[in-house]
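Structure first, sequence second, as always.
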């Protein structure tokens, strides 16, 4: 009787140990599967973002690069150049586009401005200057940060400034800026999270 009992105890422990190992292996497999799925979703998001925000690929490129030259000629041959503080602003006023180049002549940001906005231009993520904040949130989600009228979308590399009673601007959006948002203090040093209206 004693040896039979010991055998059943041994058998039970052996089965429990094998079950624990099996559960452990299943958890590991599930974690790897989830990680792989997340990686695939991230890759898909990157592809979608580059397609939905085609201007992002120009950020950081030198003004002499062929892609920048082609983009500038696509926007239009007429621009006004303003220089100051080591930066250059190429303003395509009749299209409502302005490009900001740093002192090293690399593109820092592309601004799409509501004043003189050319509706034939394709804006990032299918946005329109006429989009109200709620419609923008439907298209691209809630902003990561807001500061007064500025809405920052860090993972989409966008800043949207909403109109604050500007009578010259008939649109709800003043401008949309495409830039690499790798810091919280791009425009506003005291960013706070707040509910969008």
């Amino acid at each position: 009787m004693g040896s039979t009992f010991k055998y059943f105890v041994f058998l039970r422990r052996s089965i429990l140990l094998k079950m624990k190992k099996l559960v452990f292996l299943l958890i590991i497999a599930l974690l790897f599967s989830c990680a792989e799925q997340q990686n695939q979703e991230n890759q898909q998001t990157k592809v979608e973002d580059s397609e939905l925000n085609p201007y992002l690929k120009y950020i950081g490129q030198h003004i002499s690069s062929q892609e920048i030259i082609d983009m500038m000629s696509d926007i239009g041959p007429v621009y006004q150049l303003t220089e100051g503080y080591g930066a250059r602003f190429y303003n395509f006023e009749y299209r409502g586009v302005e490009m900001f180049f740093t002192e090293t002549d690399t593109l820092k940001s592309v601004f799409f401005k509501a004043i003189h906005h050319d509706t034939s231009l394709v804006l990032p993520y299918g946005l329109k200057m006429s989009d109200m904040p709620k419609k923008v949130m439907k298209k691209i989600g809630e902003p990561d940060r807001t500061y007064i009228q500025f809405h920052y979308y860090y993972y989409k590399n966008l800043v949207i400034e909403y109109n604050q009673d500007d009578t010259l601007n008939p649109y709800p959006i003043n401008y949309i800026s495409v830039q690499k948002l790798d810091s919280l203090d791009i425009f506003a040093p005291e960013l706070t999270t707040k509910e969008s209206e």
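Margin note: The chain has two domains: 1-52, 55-179.
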